[in-house]
Backbone:
């Protein structure tokens, strides 16, 4: 555990990022088996890019012992709760945010 | 549609037991062991998560450290650190040390603590 | 030595033998051969999963890929060091606005300034305001900023918390005694990939001039996950 390792940034560069902050995106309506980090409740939902976290090895490959390359861009995406849950009972302003990998996202308005 | 047992966000469920029941000594040690195995880059977090997900139907009936211990086991066997036979032999040796009969199933430390 | 928020709940038997002195428990551990049967911390004989974990640990030690000392050291970090970092980091953010800006911009680097080494963890700090209240969950497993908060509490790992806080956060917060008016937006973070989260609660009134140590003492783990609000003790 070196000081250098720990003082590194939370974020990594993502020069080839497809989306920018503020883009409206939709989470793909796909249900492939195997290791995924995109919760089923958020699939098909529309949200907005809140920040770009960087590019990381793909966890879906790391999970099976592969090196996860090429790196994939990870975003934080913000959703209105009323857009996620049909009968959401809280405030209409309530939001939920999570990290979604680029290959799970499409621009809003594009048929998936 | 849920393809992995741990993907439970949004499922109806009962009240949260807001008391922290803490960890038993063996759980703290198992957690530390798991942590060392990751730090030494023998397994990675994603492999452990995937192995836990592969518990399938058993997942919902298992407690957290039973899940994590099973996941470590699966990945270590996959990577050839030891075989199932070697593990079983070592477990039998440990049972003898603690004078535990071979047929004992996994109790949930019933007496007193949780 | 540690307050209730950080004390591991031990069995009655262990309490009789060792009291609540956490340091004493650890000295006791280090004097023993890790492989000799020591059951004094848990009731009854070891169960299947304890035996499994011990067996795996011994097999890897025999191969020289890990050592018993590494495991013991890690246990100590989880119990004695990690749980305190989160409160210290947020107390610093409360007293030092420039530090808070750095923490919000880049969590891991800011924590490193304070000696809280996050290893592989990447951290996003989220700030409570009069308009927004943040709450953290990992629905898929139990991701949690362990290097800042120690091990997650049992409720955080529970099915009921993980499944419900994403779709009825206000009801779940009420179960913790936290009532939020509709004028406050609830912002749930599902810690589902590579990031970990730390809530920066609002600093309560009546804490002017407090030392960082005194502030850290009211920043319990539950306030840093977002299920409770910090309170000034009566």
Residues:
């Amino acid at each position: 555990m070196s000081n250098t390792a720990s003082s590194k940034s939370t974020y990594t560069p993502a020069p080839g990022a497809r989306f920018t902050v503020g883009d409206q995106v939709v989470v793909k309506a796909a249900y492939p088996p195997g290791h995924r980090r995109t919760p089923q409740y958020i699939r098909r939902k529309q949200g907005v890019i809140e920040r770009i976290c960087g590019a990381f090895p793909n966890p879906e490959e790391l999970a099976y012992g592969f090196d996860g390359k090429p790196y994939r861009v990870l975003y934080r995406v913000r959703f209105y709760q009323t857009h996620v849950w049909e009968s959401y009972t809280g405030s209409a302003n309530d939001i939920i945010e999570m990290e979604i990998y680029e290959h799970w996202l499409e621009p809003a308005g594009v048929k998936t | 549609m849920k393809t992995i047992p741990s993907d439970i966000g949004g499922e109806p469920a009962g009240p949260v037991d807001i008391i922290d029941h803490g960890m038993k000594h063996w759980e703290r040690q198992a957690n530390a062991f798991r942590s060392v195995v990751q730090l030494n880059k023998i397994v990675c977090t994603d492999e452990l998560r995937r192995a836990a997900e592969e518990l399938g139907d058993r997942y919902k009936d298992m407690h957290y450290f039973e899940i994590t211990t099973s996941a470590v086991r699966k990945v270590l066997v996959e990577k050839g650190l030891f075989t199932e036979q070697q593990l079983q032999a070592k477990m039998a040796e440990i049972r003898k040390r603690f004078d535990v009969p071979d047929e004992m199933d996994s109790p949930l430390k019933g007496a007193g603590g949780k | 030595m540690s307050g209730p928020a950080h004390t591991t709940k031990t069995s009655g038997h262990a309490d009789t033998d060792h009291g609540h002195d956490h340091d004493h428990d650890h000295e006791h551990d280090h004097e023993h051969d890790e492989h000799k049967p020591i059951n004094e911390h848990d009731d009854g004989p070891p169960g299947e999963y304890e035996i499994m974990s011990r067996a795996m640990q011994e097999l890897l030690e025999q191969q020289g890929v890990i050592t018993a000392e590494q495991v013991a050291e890690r246990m100590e970090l989880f119990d004695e060091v990690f749980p305190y970092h989160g409160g210290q980091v947020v107390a610093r953010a409360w007293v030092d606005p420039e530090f808070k800006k750095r923490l919000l911009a880049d969590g891991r680097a800011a924590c490193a300034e304070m000696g809280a080494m996050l290893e592989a963890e990447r951290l996003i700090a989220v700030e409570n305001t009069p308009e927004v209240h943040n709450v953290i969950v990992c629905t898929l497993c139990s991701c949690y900023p362990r290097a800042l908060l120690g091990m997650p509490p049992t409720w955080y790992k529970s099915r009921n918390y993980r499944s419900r806080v994403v779709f009825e956060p206000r009801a779940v917060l009420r179960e913790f005694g936290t009532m939020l008016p509709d004028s406050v937006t609830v912002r749930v973070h599902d810690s589902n990939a590579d990031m970990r989260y730390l809530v920066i609660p609002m600093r309560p009134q009546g804490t002017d001039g407090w030392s960082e140590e005194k502030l850290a003492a009211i920043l319990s783990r539950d306030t840093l996950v977002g299920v409770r609000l910090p309170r000034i003790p009566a």
Remarks:
- The radius of gyration of chain B is 16 Å.
- The interface with chain A takes residues 1-4, 7, 9-10, 44, 46-47, 49-50, 53, 78-79 of chain B (CB under 8 Å).
- Residues 30-98 of chain B form one domain.
- The CA atoms of residues 47 and 75 of chain B lie 7 Å apart.
